[in-house]
Design goal:
Layout (H helix, E strand, L loop, with lengths): L7 H14 L48 E2 L4 E4 L5 E9 L9 E6 L2 E6 L8 E14 L2 E12 L2 E12 L2 E4 L16 H14 L2
Antiparallel strand pairs: 1-3, 2-3, 3-4, 4-5, 6-7, 7-8, 8-9
Length: 204
């Protein structure tokens, strides 16, 4: 008896038809990540959806601080309590990142950190650093305030960023991100100092 050879294209088409119409005697796969229904009993359309456990949070992409090559204003000297000074230089890059069209950073005593348009403020486009100055410490932790001109997709305004020093390095206090948008505290260092003093006094 002569064997009949089925062309490969016909076999691929047959398999594709089976997958599309579930006509090969196998049920369609279940919800992604969920159990696959057994061949003897297809999943009922009225069956509840399989609830998958949440996956691990993916880490935010690292910011390449070397790309902040544009100087944003003149170098500033911030005098902290006790007479210690911090040399601060504003930096900026114009690059599309999520919603933001431009991001800002600072160089504090030779160490760079991203301050606006990334992380908790990734939806803001940073138009530039307006002012910087010392603000009331949080306990024994020194803090510096930064005032920025920013824009969101539908408006422009000023806001404030608070830097705090921990383990000898400066970092952004992400817990205050967006709190001073378009308010008195976001328009001047004096207003930010007053708002932080009031906020800290109300904290337990």
């Amino acid at each position: 008896m002569t064997s009949r050879v089925v062309p490969m294209t016909s076999r691929i088409a047959a398999v594709a038809g089976c997958l599309a119409l579930a006509a090969c005697g196998q049920p369609s796969p279940g919800q992604r990540g969920g159990p696959t229904p057994t061949p003897s009993k297809a999943a009922s359309p009225s069956s509840p959806a399989v609830q998958l456990p949440p996956g691990p949070d993916l880490p935010a992409p690292a910011v390449d601080l070397a790309q902040f090559s544009e100087r944003d204003g003149k170098p500033l000297t911030i005098r902290l309590a006790g007479g210690r000074t911090v040399r601060l230089q504003g930096l900026r890059r114009v690059e599309k990142a999520d919603i933001s069209d431009a991001q800002c950073a600072v160089d504090a005593d030779g160490r760079r950190l991203a301050t606006m348009g990334v992380g908790a403020t990734e939806e803001y486009t940073c138009n530039g650093l307006v002012a910087a100055g010392v603000v009331p410490p949080k306990g024994a932790v020194p803090r510096i305030g930064l005032i920025y001109d920013v824009a969101s997709p539908n408006t422009s305004f000023r806001t404030a960023v608070v830097l705090e020093q921990a383990d000898g390095a400066w970092r952004v206090d992400e817990g205050l991100a967006g709190e001073f948008d378009d308010g008195e505290a976001g328009r001047s260092i004096a207003g930010l100092r007053a708002a932080l003093s009031k906020r800290d006094a109300a904290s337990p």
